[in-house]
């Protein structure tokens, strides 16, 4: 297994398969017995947050607790990653005190910088460029529902953002088709598509502007906020330019009846997704959110516990 988890592309399909299998095993153990074997007893995960979070903070902290370890919260004002102290100094100091580092940052270079200088595993809890833990929890949810991944079609409706990038790579790793439906100027740039295809040549990628046409053969319809953290000043412009890209009842009716709906949250009902679809039986959004805990538990179990 690779030492760090900074991007989905860091790992082979076999390594990602192992992470999903361990996550599934630990989830089943918890659901069956009410607890997990404390394989991380005495171990500490340092958790650095430049960006606020509900799911990332709670899932990593609870994962460590349920495996017998400790999740140590480090706020940005305390660490000052790259400001108060150089990234490489933070990595070296923490490496002498903790057993793993998880960071949720703006710049992706801070994650790669931590990994370069750290002697303990570094996990990407989100950057502006990628969100690998989210993408893998998403595939865990898809696999639980359908029983397989290969040959499935995931349609991402909305901004070609960090989640879309990570999902595109993850889909390619597991022989899934990835369709992006985005307005002009919000698609993934061609150089990024070329880079992703160089990492996963087997990826079947398609850009379809019309969301109605895009979901025609969808197994999964995925959306995310149109206005990410740090883009608040662009809200009015983005809402206008994403008109017609809402995942709503009309869009869902154009998809096969088997299609499920996912959203990485937080969701803004009435913007990127309607309240009706959010609460519909075809929405697996909240089981998907719960799987952040289970995938990340599997991740720390492998990286820090040797599973």
Your description of this structure?
The chain is of the alpha/beta class and 307 residues long. The chain folds into 2 domains: 8-131 and 291-305, Rossmann fold; 134-288, Aspartate/ornithine carbamoyltransferase (Rossmann fold, 3-Layer(aba) Sandwich), CATH 3.40.50.1370. 44% of the residues lie in helices and 14% in strands. It has 13 helices and 9 strands. The protein has helices at residues 13-33, 55-66, 76-79, 87-95, 108-117, 132-146, 162-173, 190-199, 211-214, 235-241, 249-253, 275-278, 285-305; strands spanning 44-49, 70-75, 100-104, 122-126, 153-157, 177-181, 204-207, 220-223, 260-263. Strands 7-6-5-8-9 form a 5-stranded parallel sheet, with helices on one face. Helix 5 links the parallel strand 3 and strand 4. Helix 2 (55-66) crosses helix 13 (285-305), helix 6 (132-146) crosses helix 7 (162-173) and helix 7 runs parallel beside helix 8 (190-199). The longest helix is centred in the N-terminal third of the chain and has 21 residues, at 13-33. The chain starts with 12 loop residues before the first helix and ends with a helix.
